[in-house]
Amino acid sequence: MRNLRTAVLTVLATGLAVTALAQVPAAAAPAPAPAQPKFLSANQLPASHTPWTAGPIRKGVPAEGSVCTTGIAPAAGTRHRDFRTELDTNARQTITVAPTTAMAKALAAELRRALETCLDRLKEQDPGLEGEAFYQGRINVEEGAHVYSIDTSYPEVGSTDIGLYSVGRDGRTVTVVEWGQMGELDGAPLEGFKKTTRTAVAKLH
After folding, report:
1. DSSP structural state of residue 186
2. pTM over 0.70
3. Alpha carbon distance 191, 203 (integer Å)
4. Would residue 98 be called left, alpha or beta, if left means φ above 0 and alpha means ψ between -120 and 50 degrees?
5. Number of alpha helices (DSSP H) and beta strands (DSSP E) in the chain
6. Chain segment 56-90, per-residue pLDDT in tens
7. Which long-range contacts (CB under 8 A, 24 or more apart) does 123-132 make?
8. DSSP single-letter state for residue 57
């Protein structure tokens, strides 16, 4: 009788253990890391007389900052990529993922203000510089993108440079696209740059 009672208790204990294990929830699988925003590729830059070459995607802000927006984007959450052609035409895309949408919105606004005041600041630093700056309009893509042009010249030496810039946002992600070469606005691929900007913002996520 004692042996029978012991056997019954053993079976009951085993059953309780199995039931308890069945009630323990399985460990949740770790959430996948959010996908990194995508950069432009070389063939998505405005048409050029020679092919574009894309540099590597690097973490942080560029070591050689952009003329108009240096010091605005934080290093944390920022990556950048440089592009060039064989004819002294260059471009850059910078992408920053902010901690919150509100912070991304504020960053985009600050970058826009920096572009809007860039030429005046450059003239203060170099009184011999002349130029014109224009707001080239808004592009309806995601939360919007804004395009600017800055045309500069040094009359004493006869050199002229044109730069095209854009700031766009998709949720918490802000991107800046820059394009520059020697010459004037009349010879710049403004419509091609707007298309590049639309693509840059659309492919972020």
Report:
1. G
2. yes
3. 19
4. beta
5. 4, 8
6. 999 999 998 889 999 999 999 999 999 999 988 99
7. 128/154, 128/155, 128/156, 129/153, 129/154, 130/154, 130/155, 132/185
8. -
